[in-house]
Amino acid sequence: MVIDLNADLGEGFGIWRLGDDMALLDVVTSANIACGFHAGDPLTIRRTCAAAVDRGVMIGAQVSYRDLAGFGRREMEVDPEELCAEVLYQLAAVDGIARAMGGRVSYVKPHGALYNRICRDPEQADAVVEAVADYDRDLPLLTLPGSAVHEIAAREGVATVTEAFADRAYTPAGTLLPRRSPGAVLHDPAAVAARAVRMATARTVTAVDGSQVPVDARSICVHGDTPDAVLLARAVRDGLVAAGVTLKAFT
Fold it and tell me: Which of 29, 89, 204, 251 measures 20 to 30 Å from 219, CA to CA?
């Protein structure tokens, strides 16, 4: 059993700090680094990339809608060509900084509303996949099992990697419960760790209605902006290791 553990990092902006990036980089195997459109600024990106390289943590470009005010969590109607260009812009920027720090972007993970939208919207999914293919067809895309991204990416020769979310509630359809719904984000370290272990070993997750949903995931995400994110991530890592799961990046 081999699982990657990823988290969203580099989400500060200017004088505002969000989460403890340095502590989380000591826990995770992959870092989804904000590209400046929902969070992050050049200095934050540079520091986070440098710290990831120092720790041997893989760097992913966390591309987003252009939505700083809404933290990328507001769904948007964007012309496909414009969306493709904006994703390409973000990817190239973070990869350039990562390379200057001695690393590189190894994968792409859309953020927030864009992540959820392209799971069900072939038009926006096609725009994101096109941007990745234009930049580097060898970069895999992280997405949910059952996402529309898989078929579109396969057609374009772009690999996909499935992931699961240890600290998010699931619907019976296998999608993430919207954040506006009560109980959408989980905060109890023991419960989140047990959930991650079940995802990695039994390949299932308990949905909000009590049903068991299959989750064939190669990577598990713990969000970096939630309260006690470091505590949650450490609990997940310790739980996985205790269950005999090997933690290893997928790239």
Answer: 89
